[in-house]
Amino acid sequence: MAIRVAVWNLERGGLGDPERSSAMANKILSLEADVVVLPEAYNEGGHYDLVEVAKQRFMDVGHYSVAETLYNDDDKRKDRRAILMLNRSPSEEPNIIDLGSRQALGWLTADAFTNTDVNIAGVHLDDRAEARRVGQTLKLLELFQDEQDGSCPSVIAGDLNAMHRLEIRSALIRAVQPIAERLPYGEPGFEASKIARIGSLARRLSEMADGTTLRLFENAGYRDSDSAHLHTKGIAQLDHILHTAELYSPPDSFQSIKANGLSDHRIIRAIIET
Questions:
Q1: Residue boundaries of the structural domains of the chain
Q2: Considering 11, 109, 116, 254, which has the largest number of Cβ atoms within 10 A of its Cβ?
Q3: Beta-carbon neighbour count of residue 154 at 10 Å?
């Protein structure tokens, strides 16, 4: 049979935002996914009471188990963000995965029809530099290889902040890098001038378009469930559902869903057959 996996970056802690929390919870429940990965689910300084209400709804209405962890970013941002993961068929307790400058979640998930376990990681790779993402990717791949001895099929789902290098859009984004490097740079999460924020965004996007991070996953045997490489934020494909070769994702099962103004990321959903 199959496991339905969805990813949605909730942009700056959506579940703790009084103006978005309830609508976001409704949208998430409407996806009818078996596993949902929610990067930037809430901020440490946000309204955690709203997050608790949303989590209770996920458990009561969606029949989900819930896992969460704050990012352990080392950049001293004003408020740490968190990733949330929902799972309808967990085989074991979830694990917090230490990727160095960012935490992720790992959860062994059961397909009851085929009696197959799938190791699913919910991740949000660092947006600041390709070198950071490469380090986090290598740690994640090593961990999955060691823990499962390469025998358990795996899914890596979330906001990877990474694009496929050979995409035309990636080449266009990389073309602005010489200009971006001449602009002032504002570190994400800190006060900066408008031109410095633009310079920061342009420089970070050009690195995301480098392609090294996704190439590491591909070299390790992972495939993108979205063969068309549809955009998930602006013109870029930053959010992904990757799976190992033992699994199959029918191309027509992949969906990219508008967030209706609730987030700057689209929702992605795919069927993973075991």
A1: 2-165+210-273
A2: 109
A3: 24
* CATH code of the domain made up of 2-165+210-273: 3.60.10.10
Q: For residues 71 and 122, give the distance between their C-alpha atoms in angstroms, rounded to a whole number.
A: 12
Tokens for 64, please give them: 């989900």
Question: What are the beta bridge partners of residue 117?
Answer: 110
Neighbours of 175 (CB within 10 A): 11
